[in-house]
Design a protein that fits this description.
This protein has 19 helices and eight strands. It is an alpha/beta fold. It has a domain of 195 residues: Rossmann fold (3-Layer(aba) Sandwich). The longest helix is centred in the middle third of the chain and has 24 residues. The termini are far apart. The mean pLDDT is 97. The chain binds Double cubane cluster (BJ8).
Length: 426
């Protein structure tokens, strides 16, 4: 597939030939995985376009905005980083996690190979000059979540300014105070780099815009609880993945437009698959674009994914920030509480996450849970011990899949998922 080059790629210093190659591969895989699905909602056309043009229009749009309003572009890697603050100070937050193995060789020149593929991928995109998203950022924001990420910020900081937020790993009063201080420090950092001062009105507006996006995603996921679901797991996942890249207000509008269509389908009982298809709920590590592996295997084997307890799923949008406080301090407290309610396995203990998975698996009427772990992610891997026990006690069948971004294990995973679906369908 030939790729029309954007002139800005050259000025951003992107490796043009490899960018062509990467986008060309995406242009081959995407129609196979996505466009071949039957009975897709019409509103998905927007998200198809956004994926095909992922290194193009969104970058141009951010650069135009920067030129017009002096907006700073801030790259993030974790859903604990409060986008509301960046938006309130006139900036643009953009997610930079990597979901493709294309950049592994570039990361391997610097990092050990046996680390989490999500990190290996984004480090490779940076080191190989393969991502215009990285190259248009004014600074990056890391966080002290897992060990591999923590140490990676030191390496990234050598090539691009990287600010690090210290995330506590427990949820007591001391930890809350630490996290509050970290959010206040992040506000100061963003104020200094933007040359603006945070106001109550601006922060409130930032909160409302992000809450609007969360509400739209909640609405989308609500429709997936229907029997049969009106949208495939792959399409819903794609929308969630694009939430990290697309212009926030347009994204919210487009998701709501798809939801209108999906709710009408639910009313008519119109689904993308038969009522008897095995319904699977995914729990675990994030699935960053273009990582559609498990969803594609499930849905090309006769099942359907009805929800994801991941950071590219429900964890991202489940809790809203309280918009009611009238003071800056009150709004900051609301941010602190909302972000600390996310249950990442970097926290200990993390039993709330287990309770949530059981509750959501039931709400989404799942026949079984696939516990998805990216290779070398110790936190999610070890947390499975308690998760498996709890799910079994709750009578919910579970299958653990540990994988990376390559295709080598696709056949074996397909066999295991098919056997699992057969077992839960009996
Ligand atoms: S809140 S899941 S986005 S840290 S998968 S890099 S934990 S070794 S991505 Fe994450 Fe924030 Fe948690 Fe979500 Fe490390 Fe594990 Fe890799 Fe991970």
């Amino acid at each position: 597939m030939t790729v029309d080059r954007y002139p800005m790629w050259e000025s951003l210093g992107i490796d043009l030939e490899r960018n062509d190659e990467f986008l060309g591969m995406l242009g081959v895989v995407y129609p196979e995985v996505y466009l071949s699905q039957p009975n897709r909602p019409k509103g998905m056309a927007y998200f198809d376009g956004a994926t095909f043009d992922i290194h193009g229009a969104p970058i141009q749009e951010m650069l135009d905005e920067k030129k017009k309003t002096d907006a700073q572009i801030v790259g993030t890697f974790c859903i604990y980083v409060p986008d509301e603050v960046i938006l309130a100070l006139g900036g643009i937050p953009v997610g930079l996690c990597g979901g493709s193995s294309y950049s592994f060789p570039d990361a391997d020149k610097t990092l050990p190979r046996n680390i989490c593929p999500l990190i290996r991928s984004y480090v490779g995109f940076k080191m190989g000059k393969l991502s215009p998203f990285f190259e248009c950022c004014d600074f990056l924001v890391g966080e002290t979540t897992c060990d591999a990420k923590k140490k990676t910020w030191e390496i990234l900081d050598e090539v691009q300014p990287t600010y690090v937020m210290e995330l506590p790993q427990r949820k007591g009063e001391i930890d809350r105070q630490l996290w509050r201080d970290e959010i206040v420090n992040f506000i100061k950092k963003t104020e200094d780099t933007s040359g603006k001062r945070l106001t109550v009105e601006a922060l409130k507006e930032g909160i409302q815009r992000v809450n609007g996006k969360r509400k739209a995603l909640k609405r989308l996921y609500e429709t997936r609880k229907a029997l049969p679901p009106p949208i495939s797991g792959k399409d819903a996942l794609l929308i969630s993945q694009l939430a990290f890249y697309d212009q926030i207000d347009r994204f919210t509008e487009k998701v709501n437009a798809v939801c209108d269509e999906l709710e009408a389908r639910v009313k008519k009982g119109d689904g993308v698959i038969g009522k008897d298809a095995p319904r699977l709920f995914i729990s675990g590590t994030p699935q960053v674009i273009p990582n559609w592996k498990v969803h594609h295997i499930v849905e090309s084997s006769g099942g359907v994914v009805v929800g994801e307890e991941t950071c590219t799923g429900i964890r991202y949008f489940n809790d809203l920030v309280d918009e009611s406080p009238a003071t800056l301090d009150g709004l900051i407290d609301a941010l602190v509480d909302r972000y600390l309610s996310i249950n990442c396995s970097c926290f200990t203990p993390n039993d709330m996450r287990i309770d949530q998975v059981i509750q959501w698996a039931k709400e989404y009427r799942a026949d079984g849970v696939i516990y998805y772990v990216l290779q070398f992610c110790h936190a999610y891997n070890v947390e499975y011990v308690k998760m498996e026990r709890a799910l079994k006690e709750a009578g919910i069948p579970v299958l653990k899949i540990e994988s990376d971004y390559g295709d080598e294990d696709t056949g074996q995973i397909k066999t295991r998922i098919e056997a699992f679906m057969e077992q839960i369908s009996q």
